[in-house]
Design brief:
about 150 residues; alpha+beta; Alpha-D-Glucose-1,6-Bisphosphate, Chain A, domain 4; seven-stranded antiparallel β-sheet; 2 helices; 7 strands; about 25% helix
Length: about 150
């Protein structure tokens, strides 16, 4: 069974504290997700920041407008350095997403590493080649633009 990985970096002209404050708030996820996906958090998280053990549930329509339930758990957090979310319920057989930030001259380097495994074995591998890989890239390209709109271009 194949595993796949998406690796994306972005330089942000902001302080470590500003970027951390933004990315560690689950309430900001909708702002960095393409509107056509209909993303919304469905559990009451209030204004909480990411913490180990946090469960976040969503509704999302990644393909053909079909609404899916998705649940992730925040499994690791190191303040102003990284956090990891892992799918507990959702469209993937396995999903592990690392969000890392590090201070650089003039701002912050943000790195996303998504390791995933589609469902359905061989059919999932075909779907990854034809659809999933491209769609994930488009989602993260949208995220890059949304973060630039929030903080400016590096």
């Amino acid at each position: 069974m194949a595993f796949y990985q998406l690796h994306q970096t972005q330089k942000i002209p902001a302080t470590l504290a500003q970027v951390w404050d933004f990315i560690s708030s689950p309430n900001n996820l909708k702002d960095i997700t393409p509107p056509h996906m209909g993303f919304r958090v469905t559990n009451d998280i209030g204004n909480a920041k990411m913490y180990p053990g946090m469960i976040i549930t969503y509704k999302v329509s990644p393909l053909l407008g079909i609404e899916l339930d998705w649940m992730t758990e925040i499994t690791h957090v190191k303040f102003q350095e990284y956090f990891v979310d892992e799918q507990r319920i959702g469209p993937y057989k396995m999903w592990h997403h690392q969000h890392k930030i590090v201070e650089i001259e003039g701002g912050v380097l943000m790195t996303d590493i998504v390791t995933y495994q589609p469902p359905l074995g061989f059919l999932g591998a075909i779907a990854n080649t034809l659809i999933i890989k491209k769609q994930l890239k488009q989602i993260f390209d949208y995220r890059t633009i949304a973060v630039e709109q929030k903080f400016g271009k590096f």
